[in-house]
Amino acid sequence: MDEHSDPIEVVRRPRSGATRRRGRRVRAVLALGSVVGLGVVATSAAFSDRATVTAQLTAGTLDITVDGAQGNPVPYPLTFPGAEAIAPGQTVYAPLEVANVGTVDADLSMSTTVTPDGTPQNATDDLEMTVVHTAGSSCDAAVVAADPAPYVAPGPVADATFEDVPLAGGGALDLCFAVTLPASVTGTGGGGAEVVLELLAEQAGA
Fold this sequence. Notes:
The protein is α+β, with helices and mostly antiparallel strands. It has helices spanning about 15-40, 140-145; strands at about 65, 90-100, 105-115, 130-135, 150-155, 160-165, 170-180, 195-205. The protein has two helices and eight strands; from the N terminus they run H-E-E-E-E-H-E-E-E-E. The longest helix is centred in the N-terminal third of the chain and has 26 residues, at about 15-40. The N and C termini lie far apart (about 125 Å).
């Protein structure tokens, strides 16, 4: 090559208008795509709301006491003043409060078990019991006579039972127990017996 030859000039041609316009269209379309994409995100949500409800549930209770004592599993000792030596024609009395300290209404029943001490011709075999309603701790001959519908009518102690006496939750029932040795009993007397009164409260209407 001749060292005096003219240098080669490289000429960069400007982009044609069509090319420039195509580039702008592409950018415009991409920009439009971005706008459309944002529009889709904005309209994909829906209105919503929420509510929460709570409830407190508590089971009721049925719990009876006798003179404020549980009486279970240890029996409550009911005291009859004068019962240590009952004579024919004599009656001894003892009040008893049966309370439902629970919240569930109940029906009260009572059964009686008598266990003689084994003494021959045991005079306590002839004992009779009456159970009536009273107010508070009042329990005497006048209280018994004033009740026209006793829970337990006069009869053998072993037969002293009642059932389905209403006892509301939080309520109490005042009872008066009367035990009599009939005047007709003869002999030398003596003997004894253990008397167990079983009180049962069951849910009313169950």
